[in-house]
Amino acid sequence: MLGSDPFHLQPDYSSAVLHLETNTGLRGVSIVFTVGAGTDWVCHGIKDLCQLLIGMTLDQFAESPITLYRRLIDHHQLRWLHDGVFAWPP
């Protein structure tokens, strides 16, 4: 693996896998690849952000994807993590 990544000379590639299932039986999988360190943070972030999806239907998302986008990036306790990155309206 040496030389496969110019910034991480000793990568320990890992991944966080999310299995999402709706109450109607729809299923999805998302995979996030990391270089090893920090995968646990990614897993915690996924777990916390998934809580913001509970109660939202696929139809609601299809009608207004911006609603979910705003819910995820403008959460009152999480938005400080990226202060200044998001400003609404654009």
TrEMBL record:
SUPFAM superfamilies: Enolase N-terminal domain-like. InterPro entries: Enolase-like_N. It comes from the Bacteria. This is Mandelate racemase/muconate lactonizing enzyme.
